[in-house]
Structures
1.
Amino acid sequence: MTLTVCIAATVAVAMILTVLIKPYINIGSHKLGLYWVVCLYGAILMLATGRISFSSAIKGITADSSVNPLKILTLFLSMTLLSVYLGDAGFFDYIADAVFLKTKGGTLKLFLILYAVVSVLTVFTSNDIIILTFTPPICIFAKKAKISPLPFLLGEFVAANTWSMMLIIGNPTNIYLAGSAGITFTEYLSVMWLPALCGGLTGLLMIFLLFRKQLLAPLPQNTNAESKPLKKLIPHRTPLIVSIIHLLVCIVLLAVSDFIGVAMWVICLVLALSLTVFDIVYDLIVEKTAMPVWRSIKKEPYELIPFVLSMFVIVLALKECGFTALLGDALIQNTKSDGVLFGLLSAGASNLLNNIPMSVLFERIIAGNSLPALFGAVIGSNVGAFITPVGALAGIMWNKILGEYGVKLPFIKFILYGGAVAIPTLLASVGALAIIL
């Protein structure tokens, strides 16, 4: 057990250091994420030292069960692809344009509208997609308006990582943790709507209190920003309409998946393939090339595949040596307090491991023995994303974008703001969980 735990701990420390010091390296025109390379090396080391056999690893990865990582990755990547197509069709650009350039009124009104729009879109798409889409327009608008972008950026980040708790599709950690226990779309929603609501409103209140002076100040009348023509934002309306229809059909089918007897990952995969086929045909007819579809497919977060699979192998090794069972026996009490405890522990662990590896580890610790603990881990995996920049992959990408637009948010400053918002938000969410379970 000692060697297995030491290897896992070393991988966790090395991953954090790569995220903080050099998360990516350039290889030609491509960026290679070092964080997942570290995890892959750790998984290989577990296999090479006999901490887990190759056959056991393959059996665990391909097992016909709800915890199968291949099914969970398929579900997440399919949902992400639907969101990517929606973004490439101009939907998010149009919304961002409407929010920043067509909102009349003061700074607070603009902030509240932005928070509401990001919250709603996050619920039905993906928090990562929303963060990547809305961050550049916020930076550009703030620079032209000569105002601080921090209230809007942090409001966007908090909204995207709290309201993502609402539906099972809002975050890959939701999908992994809930899927591991066989929790359906509607079962998940029946529990998580209240923690998401309480967390989202608490996060909004804390951001307002932190930045009330800036938010109550008048918005400059002339921002020198011009709205782009609708034709430029949405060059082709047909792909946009078809993308929206596919997303809505997917959400409806996910909601009734337990009644129709079709697995959620199958629904998402079929609709993602359907939209891909449509886009190929449409682009070949209209654009005379399939390059737009290829560009959309290239935007998928493929690094998530080796990252999750490697962490899954490492956690399987920890399970085989008895470490996860030992932690489960020590921590799980089979009471409502499990939700509070695991909410706090998972939020902290997300900032030591990143929230995806944390979810893989905590799923094995909980092992289906406590629903409050599992939902608590879901809360921690979302809210923990804005305690430090290493809490989630979205935070790593978000900080990279800020640097590209000249917005400075040092590590310590992020923690001060993030902690001030995350702690009350986390307490509100786990408190709501204790009420509803």
2.
Amino acid sequence: MSARYLLDTNVISHIMQGRDALLLARLTQVPVGQVVMSSITLAELEYGLHRKGQPVRLRNALTQVLLHMDVLPWDEAVATCYGEFCATLEVQGINLSDFDMMIAAHAVALNATLVSRDKAFAQVPVERLSLEIW
């Protein structure tokens, strides 16, 4: 499978809320198997659920999302990409949060487009990270 889009945590959260018709419509335009999430994103979502006391509605929403996209592991190849990616951005004076750096590096390692609504990613040069706002 060749992932085309890696969805950031904030986009998955909007999908789970189910109130953004344009986002949901855009998602249905992408072929099955072309949209994935990072295991880092899943970790952030699980943390959020536990902080909120595991609300049933959100747990069910996450379960539904997971039925429709793969969660890709943060493996050795991604870790290697992360080291180079972070060091290069640091030299350029670009600093993102640790999780944002990990998710961005995952997209770079997959050669996928990161889909996010986080303005912090706009700091990353387009030749380093393919980014779309949905």
